UniProtKB/TrEMBL annotation:
Gene3D superfamilies (UniProt xref): Vaccinia Virus protein VP39 (3.40.50.150)
Protein EC: 2.1.1.233
Pfam families membership: LCM
Organism: Pipistrellus kuhlii
Gene Ontology molecular function, alphabetical: protein C-terminal leucine carboxyl O-methyltransferase activity
Entry keywords, A to Z: Methyltransferase, S-adenosyl-L-methionine, Transferase
SUPFAM superfamilies: S-adenosyl-L-methionine-dependent methyltransferases
Protein name, per record: Leucine carboxyl methyltransferase 1
Class of this enzyme: transferase
Region of interest (Disordered), residue spans: 1-25
Lineage: Eukaryota, Metazoa, Chordata, Craniata, Vertebrata
Signal peptide: none
Summary of the function given for this chain in its UniProt record: Methylates the carboxyl group of the C-terminal leucine residue of protein phosphatase 2A catalytic subunits to form alpha-leucine ester residues.
GO biological process, one term: regulation of signal transduction
């Protein structure tokens, strides 16, 4: 968490300088390395991340590791809830996916949707495609579900029956939609969209356009967003200043003022329900046995710092067309509804 948490996004566009986009791309590497370290000391299991990301010799702070743990747990449970409600007859769009390994984890758990899409910077996608093609542990699960012996695509794209990765700009919606449709995105399917520290790098207008596009494109959908929150206070301002020094300007920080402003960005752009929770509250709701396990991995003597970090990030989820998913609207109307956070 904190200012060096994973923040992955999109390609460059005329309204951003090349330097700004390079800075944002660098945060993808930082975040992936932080995740790799947390996995290496036992916070959660992920046998695939090591094939995308090097292990850094520098030890990461305990509060950072716990922040990533809460983030991974929370997003994972919302994804699984959506998959269970749709009986996996759906599609997932991971926007700004970076080196995320959710596709491979879901396959191991026999929870794959009809198709899983990833979108990110072409440069990041090129690197990820190379890793997939050159490592059988990554390519074999995709080929096993594919009807052909080889995977389609070039350096900026890879497409198969159940998995696609696309280099595209989330701010250029016509081109994004065109590329997704070329990879057989199905607007009729229930659709889950996931963004993690992505919207904050877009201007409020650009992120609103993306949120509105998602609402208008899919009749039945859910949108999960992991973002900064409470950014008006002094701690939030320090986070902004630290990122700015790294050429990462938080162009979309305005909707990150509060949990209410996070929810409102969805409700005012075509979504029917929206809920939000800061990560400290989410962390407090995790199963106690699992929390005790990860807290025993390393000593943390500054609990106040952990709370500061956790209260400046949140998980927001919005739904539309939920009547076709049975209990999804009521289930997500209040934080977590009847769902219990489980260990991964």
């Amino acid at each position: 968490m904190a200012t060096n948490l994973r923040t992955t996004t999109f390609n460059s566009c005329p309204s951003s300088t090349e330097t700004d986009d390079e800075g944002v791309q660098g945060t993808c590497e930082d975040a992936s390395i932080c995740k790799r370290f947390a996995v290496s000391i036992g916070y959660w299991d992920d046998p695939y991340l090591q094939h995308f990301v090097r292990l850094c010799k520098e030890r990461k702070a305990p509060e950072i590791n716990r922040g990533y743990f809460a983030r991974v747990q929370g997003i994972s449970q919302l994804i699984k809830a959506f998959l269970q409600k749709t009986k996996c007859h759906c599609q997932i769009l991971n926007l700004g996916a970076g080196m995320d390994t959710t596709f491979w984890i879901l396959k191991d758990q026999d929870l794959l949707p009809d198709k899983y899409f990833e979108v990110d910077f072409p440069l990041i996608v090129t690197r990820k495609v190379h890793s997939i093609r050159s490592r059988p542990l990554l390519s074999k699960p995709i080929l096993e579900l594919h009807s052909e012996d080889s995977l389609q695509g070039d350096g900026h794209m890879l497409d198969s029956k159940r998995y696609a990765i696309i280099g595209a700009d989330l701010r250029d919606l016509p081109t994004l939609e065109e590329k997704l449709k070329k990879c057989n995105m199905n607007a009729q399917l229930p659709t889950l969209l996931v963004t993690e520290c992505v919207l904050v790098y877009m201007t409020p207008e650009q992120s609103a356009n993306l949120i509105r596009w998602a609402a208008s494109s899919f009749e039945t959908a859910m949108f999960i967003s992991y973002e900064q929150v409470n950014m008006d206070d002094r701690f939030g301002q320090i986070m902004i200043e630290n990122l700015r020094r790294r050429q990462c300007d938080l162009a979309g920080v305005e909707p990150c003022k509060s949990l209410e402003s996070q929810k409102e960005r969805f409700l005012s752009n075509g979504w029917e329900t929206a809920s939000a929770m800061n990560m400290m509250e989410l962390y407090s709701r995790l199963p106690q046995a699992e929390v005790s396990r990860i807290e025993s991995l390393e000593f943390l003597d500054e609990l106040e710092l952990l709370e500061q970090l956790m209260t400046h990030y949140c998980l927001c989820w919005a739904t539309r067309g939920g009547s076709k998913l049975g209990t999804v609207p009521s289930a997500f109307a209040s934080p977590w509804g009847p769902f219990t956070l489980q260990g991964t």
